[in-house]
Amino acid sequence: MTKKHSGQDGTGEGDDRLMQLFWNRAALKKEFQRLREQRYRLEETLKQQQAATLSAETRIESLAKLFANPEAGFNAIVYYQFRNLWNTSAAELKKFAAELYRKREEKERQREVMAFNRDRSQRLADVAETMQGVVTDISRLQGEIKRQHARMESMRGILGFFKRRPLEAEILAAKARLEPLSTEYDELNSRQSRIAAEAPPQFQGVGIVGKRMTNLAVIALAQHMHSYYSEKGLASRARDAVIMPIEEIRYGTKDQCTKLMELIPIAMAGLKSDPDFSSRLKQCAESLIADAQFLTEEDTIPSADSLDQVARNSARGSSASCNVLAQDFWDIYSTLIR
């Protein structure tokens, strides 16, 4: 009997060791798979870094060859001036959009608070009017009870005793009517306190209409900026400078580059000092409001196709008309409010 039990115990321990080895093997296989996947990802990352490094080295070598020509330096200055024009214009749009949105947000928040205050004032006035009616009824009943008590005090003797009994019934009836009025007054007073303590609801943000108006104003400014720089032959060149490498762009001779180097900062400084800036911007915004179409009721950015006519009108006779939304000029899509 003892040997039989010993054999069973040995078998059980062997099974446990076998199961432990099985689970250890499964865990090792799982860990090996994880490490292999990690190695693959690291190899891919290394390849990408090597490719990026090779590309950077190639570009540096290309720029070195380019700048070996002294006149290429002037070309490079103009190139980066155009990039600066684009980036500055995009930044101006973002600043304009943020300021407009802040003002719109404040305006809508104030409008909500004013509407809430008007509603609360009206409800307080309604409660006050009801309370005044209740106070009038209470005063009338209290006066009636006081008069009946005075009459009872004036009645003496046995005859007065019999006359006082109907008066007592009238006083009890008046007190019965007074009790619910007092309860109603207390309830009205509590309601008045609760209404007076109410805070305006939390502002849920600018609505669809507000966002649309902000975006249309931003598009109007972008459209005006394009027209302004196009008149000076700068808008399309600024776009080329952000989408094409410097090696593929030539701005002409040293003298031609020098003229552009002088023109670009003057044009940038003169954008907002243009006496017609405000009127043209307003006119463009009004045209956008009239023509802009939105694909759904929730959209805050208009359909680009609906702005084609506004783009042609804003060109002011120039052949360089451009739908800034359709072409994402000045990176406008990243500025618009969703």
Provide key terms for this protein.
mainly alpha; single chain; 338 residues; 8 helices
Question: Describe it for me?
Answer:
This protein has 338 residues and is mainly alpha-helical. It has 3 domains: 1-66; 71-114 and 206-334, no CATH class; 115-197, Methane Monooxygenase Hydroxylase, Chain G, domain 1. It has helices at residues 2-66, 70-154, 157-197, 208-231, 235-243, 254-270, 277-291, 308-314. The model is unreliable at 1-7 (pLDDT under 50).
Summarize this structure briefly.
Helices cover 78% and strands 0% of the residues.
The helical percent reads over 70%
Stretches where pLDDT falls below 50 for ≥5 residues?
1-7
Number of separate strands: 0
Secondary structural class: mainly alpha
What gap, in angstroms, lies between the N and C termini?
83 Å
Order of helices and strands: HHHHHHHH
Radius of gyration: 42 Å
Q: What proportion strand?
A: under 5%
Give the biggest beta sheet: none
- The coarse silhouette is flat
Count up the domains.
3
The pLDDT mean sits at: 83
Task: Compute the number of helices.
Answer: 8
